[in-house]
UniProtKB/TrEMBL annotation, chain A:
InterPro entries: Class_I_gatase-like, GATASE, Imidazole-glycPsynth_HisH. SUPFAM superfamilies: Class I glutamine amidotransferase-like. This is Imidazole glycerol phosphate synthase subunit HisH. It holds the Pfam family GATase. Pathway: Amino-acid biosynthesis; L-histidine biosynthesis; L-histidine from 5-phospho-alpha-D-ribose 1-diphosphate: step 5/9.
TrEMBL record, chain B:
Heterodimer of HisH and HisF. It comes from the Bacteria. This is Imidazole glycerol phosphate synthase subunit HisF. Pathway: Amino-acid biosynthesis; L-histidine biosynthesis; L-histidine from 5-phospho-alpha-D-ribose 1-diphosphate: step 5/9. CDD domains: HisF.
């Protein structure tokens, strides 16, 4: 199986590569449209700030390539948010593959921002979550979120529910870090690889 | 809801895990990679690696250790010690660290916090604050706790959060290694002053200390070293205890 990890100089991709390696999967880190198109699976990790990530994607010409991909595609963290329409983070237009607008959490004394740490998943739907339950926890670290909609395949709360995972066709996204979520994250990553 | 986190801290010197009392008198506590793997297995929510010799010897942290750790670890980890430039941080993140912790360099030049937050995002910028109780005031110390800065802990924490820190690692040097409990009032004061998560550190001795720092201290996470390294308190038992005490914890 050919696995491509999108390389757009957008932060920490090493953890995702190591997680794939622990699953016995060989991945290619690439920004080459041809390799991306031919891969069986594409992973799109993201960290950092939305506007500079979109800028890096445009600089690499990937803003036009990614939306045309037809194989199973997984956006992680900021990589999930970039699939939406627009982000409140520096008023940034996104890739526009899913209908959500990304908003910022409002902190209070008991709910800090960033939403950082282990939170349980709720209302799990679809093949990524095969074998998992509402009692399972995954690791989040983010200050912006996608609201719940008909594209939502898992929710978490902080304190209101938000999209922990989304899907539209071959495009999947998870707000949490599969590569840093222990055995639960490993299972989700393995589920994605077997799509 | 997001759970309270338990974070074993591995102080690393010359490739070994060490632990002292109030930052001095170091004891050997083993190989950091096997300790890290053991903690992850036992349910640690995150790990922190501090290269405790880095700042005083002006040496860059060990990126190869970070790489070795990232290869085996499937939970998040933070690296600190001697980090002073954007290039230092980039090297560590590219090696697989999830967050970096900065301390002396941020005190010397607070603008570094904003530079890092802009470049890499606040989520990976932890500002570590070492505070010591001097004449009833919590003073911020720098250079591995050896030099007083004249700053007040709560003020500096607020400033660091305003500049873009995504999390604060608050250590009471007056409690560090004493096992007499965390600095509850300091932790509460900082937690109420900033919108970002606060990791309390220094003084963990028994399970009830963790209940206190989460309830009375308002901490989002608690960091400890000695009690974990020397097998005095096992993580699974501690998590069961906290769960029974009504603390939201990942089991």
């Amino acid at each position: 199986m050919e696995i491509a990890v999108v390389d757009y100089k957008g932060g920490n991709v090493q953890s995702v590569l190591f997680a794939l390696e622990r699953l016995g999967a060989q991945a290619t880190l690439t920004a080459d449209p041809e390799i991306l198109r031919k891969a069986d699976k594409v992973l799109f990790p993201g960290e950092g700030e939305a506007a500079s990530a979109m800028e890096a994607l445009r600089a690499a010409g990937l803003h036009k390539v990614l939306p045309t991909l037809t194989q199973p595609f997984l956006g992680i963290c900021l990589g999930m948010q970039l699939l939406g329409q627009h982000s409140e983070e520096n008023d940034t237009p996104l890739l526009g593959l899913l209908p959500f607008n990304v908003k910022r959490f409002v902190p209070n004394t008991t709910h800090k921002v960033p939403h950082m740490g282990w939170n349980n998943l709720q209302d799990l739907q679809g093949p990524l979550f095969a074998g998992l339950t509402d009692a399972d926890h995954v690791y989040f670290v983010h200050s912006y979120y996608a609201p719940v909609g008909n594209y939502t395949t898992a929710q978490a709360s902080h304190p209101a529910p938000f999209s922990a995972a989304v899907q539209h066709g071959n495009f999947h996204g998870v707000q949490f870090h599969t590569e840093k979520s222990g055995a639960v994250g490993t299972r989700i990553l393995a589920n994605f690889l077997s799509l | 809801m997001v759970k309270k986190r338990l974070i074993p801290c591995l102080d690393v010197r010359d490739g070994r895990t060490v632990k002292g009392i109030q930052f001095e008198g170091l004891r050997d506590a083993g190989d950091p990679i096997s300790l890290a793997a053991r903690y992850a297995q036992e349910g640690a929510d995150e790990l922190v690696f501090l290269d405790i010799t880095a700042t005083n010897q002006r040496r860059q942290p060990l990126t190869h250790l970070v790489r070795d750790v990232a290869r085996v670890l499937d939970i998040p980890f933070t690296v600190g010690g001697g980090i002073s430039t954007v290039a230092d941080v980039e090297a560590l993140l590219m090696s697989g660290a999830d967050k970096v912790s900065i301390n002396s360099a941020a005190l010397a030049r607070p603008g570094l916090i904003s530079e890092l937050a802009r470049r890499f995002g606040s989520q990976c910028v932890v500002v570590a604050v070492d505070a010591r109780l001097v004449e009833q005031e919590w003073q911020v110390m720098t250079r591995a706790g050896t030099v007083a800065t004249g700053r007040q802990a709560v003020d500096w924490c607020r400033e660091a959060a305003d500049l873009g820190a995504g999390e604060l690692l608050l250590t009471s040097m007056s409690h560090d290694g004493t096992k007499a409990g965390f600095a509850l009032e300091l932790t509460r004061a900082v937690s109420e002053a900033v919108p970002v998560p606060v990791i309390a550190s220094g003084g963990a001795g028994q399970p009830s200390d963790f209940t206190a720092v989460f309830k009375a201290g308002g901490a989002d996470a608690a960091l400890a070293a000695s009690i974990f390294h020397f097998n005095e308190t096992a993580l699974p038992a501690l998590k069961q205890y906290l769960h029974a005490e009504g603390i939201a914890i990942r089991l």
